[in-house]
Each structure stands twice: as structure tokens, then as C-alpha cells.
Amino acid sequence: MSKIAFIYPGQGAQKCGMGRDFYENSEQAEKYFDAVCRRLDFDLKKICFTENEEINQTEYTQPAMVAVCLMMAQELFAQGIRPEMTAGLSLGEYAAIATAGAFSMEDAVLLVRERGKLMQYTVPAGIGGMSAVLGMEAAKIENVLKNIPGVMIANYNCPGQIVITGELTALEKAGTALKEAGAKRVLPLKVSGPFHSLLMEPAASKLKQELSKVTISDLQIPYISNVTAQKVTDKQEIAALLCEGIHSSVHWEQSVRYMIRQGIDTFVEIGPGRTLAGFMKKIDPTVTVKNVAIWEDVKKVVNELC
After folding, report:
1. Rg of the chain, C-alpha, whole Å
2. Cα separation of 107 and 301, whole Å?
3. What whole-number distance in Å separates Cα of residue 295 and Cα of residue 222?
4. What is the end-to-end Cα distance of the chain in Å, rounded?
5. What does the pLDDT read at residue 2?
6. 87 has which bridge partners?
7. Whole-model pTM over 0.90
8. β-strands 4-8, 185-188: how paired?
9. Beta bridge pairs of residue 173
């Protein structure tokens, strides 16, 4: 029998219309989504279900993504698909923790609503940014960055794709140095800030305050921390790891390899797009990857895994 992990994408996978087919086809999804909508201070249905520009604004993207991903995951649970572990890339970690039972679905969405605002407004526009480094090993990138203050690795996505973050001047200097050292390309990303950099440290204390308002329950399923790339089973660790995660590197490749070592052989990516499936092909093409992005995917995945 397959040993399954649910995995959730981060910011950047969002798209207009995401989750609408679940809302329209499932009474359970409708009930959950309406409950979340009543707790928020903006029109979540508009952001998720219609054409709009706000969906790409961090303060709206984050709650929208987590709400939709958890709505999708509930359908798999209802059909008898239960993971052995959960994990999420950056923002997706909150969906993973809710799936693991430590957060209620509503609290997870409310938390990332505040997290999104913190990440968007902690660093003034024009101070920092992020760039994707393609075609270079992580160790070589780390070696180059040692000599450039103000820039660090944000995401270890997969072999050949690393994201760096920090001050704009440092990013420009790093881009030149990395290309000289052999990187195929260094591409500036269209993001609203230097996420997962030391510039985000002030946001950590504010996030801690938000986490103190939320009930953290015992974990029913282990989840994998972005910070440590290890499983978390003790609820006492969660708040500190999430606060650290806002200004430290996301160890996604390492997290996936850890899960594989723990016996996971089937990964179900839940959410719009196929970002994580693309990473998985480069991390370990021998594992099975399923996607639940639209309503029709649920039946297909259930038939294949049950």
C-alpha cells in the first residue's frame, strides 16, 4: 500500500477562479468556505472566484491560497484518503499544519491573513527583492553568497532552482557574481518584498503575537518544518518554528528527501497548478506524484489510491 504525503504549494501558484468548482459541487466545501468568509475582513469569494488583480497582492494571496487548499484537502479526507505526513512550501506550511490537526481551518486562514500583511508591509517597497538562480548547485551558490552581505538563500526548491533574497543592491551584486561563477540564469522575481530574508526579522515578533491568540492542538499527523526539514510531532514547537520561518530559508528539497527516507512514496499536491510536481521530477523522479487542482481530480486520485 502507498505511503502518502499531502503537499501544498506556496505563493505564486494562485490563479483567478481557483476552488470555485469545489464550492459549486460540494456542500461540505461550500459550508467550510462560507464559514471562513464570515471570519475575514475582505471578500474572499471575489478574490478566489472572479477575475481580479488583488489575488496577486500578498495580503490577499495568502489567505486565499490556504482557504482553497484546505477546502480541496477536505474532499480527499471525506473520500477516505489520509496522509502519513504533510508539508507545504512556505505559505503552504500553514495548510500542512491545519491538515495535521494543530490549527482549525479558520484559524489557519486568519493567521496567514495577518502573515500576508506582515510580509507585504514590513519592508518598504524598493528596499529588497528576490531572484531565481537556475542551473547551479546549492553549495556553489552558498559559497558565492558568503562574500556578499545582505543576501541569502530563500528557497531550496529543487536541484537547479534556488531562490535568493535580500537587499536590492546586494541581489544585483550576487546576480553578477553567480553568473560569473557558472549560473545559467539569475532572474529577478516579481514579488512585493525580500521574503525569507533577515530583513523580515521584525515581522517574527508580530507573528508571535498573532500565534498567541490561536489554539494550537495536538498534532494528529506529523508535518515537516520548512526550517528544519524534519517532522514535527510536538505542538509546543510549532509557534517558534513558524516565527523563525518568516526570515529563514525554506528547505523544500531537503524536506522532500526526508519524507522519502521515511518511506513516503506517493505525494499528492493539493492546490492550483503543478509547481511542486515540477520540483519533484528534479528531486526524485521515481516517486509518484498526484495533483488535486480541479474538482475532477478528486475522483481520479481517489480511484488510483483506494
Report:
1. 18
2. 28
3. 27
4. 9
5. 87
6. 7
7. yes
8. unpaired
9. none
Q: Which residues contact 301 (CB under 8 A, 6 or more apart)?
A: 76, 81, 268, 290, 291, 292
Mean pLDDT of 290-300: 98
Residue 237 per-residue DSSP state: G
Residue of 278, 293, 230 whose CA lies nearest to 257: 230
Q: What is the pLDDT of residue 281?
A: 96
pLDDT higher than threshold 90 for residue 65: yes
Residue in this structure with the C-alpha cell 546549492, named with its chain if needed:
138
Give the per-residue SS3 of the chain. Answer: CCCEEEEECCCCCCCCCCCHHHHHHCHHHHHHHHHHHHHCCCCHHHHHHCCCCHHHCHHHHHHHHHHHHHHHHHHHHHCCCCCCEEEECCCHHHHHHHHCCCCCHHHHHHHHHHHHHHHHHCCCCCCEEEEEEECCCHHHHHHHHCCCCCEEEEEEEECCEEEEEEEHHHHHHHHHHHHHCCCCEEEECCCCCCCCCHHHHHHHHHHHHHHCCCCCCCCCCCEECCCCCCEECCHHHHHHHHHHHCCCCECHHHHHHHHHHCCCCEEEEECCCCHHHHHHHHHCCCCEEEEECCHHHHHHHHHHHC
Catalytic residues: 90, 196
Nearest-angstrom CA–CA distance, 109 and 73: 14
Total residues found in the chain within this entry: 306
- Specify burial of residue 110 (Cβ count, 10 A radius: 0-12, 13-18, 19+): buried
Strands 161-167 vs 151-158: parallel, antiparallel or unpaired: antiparallel
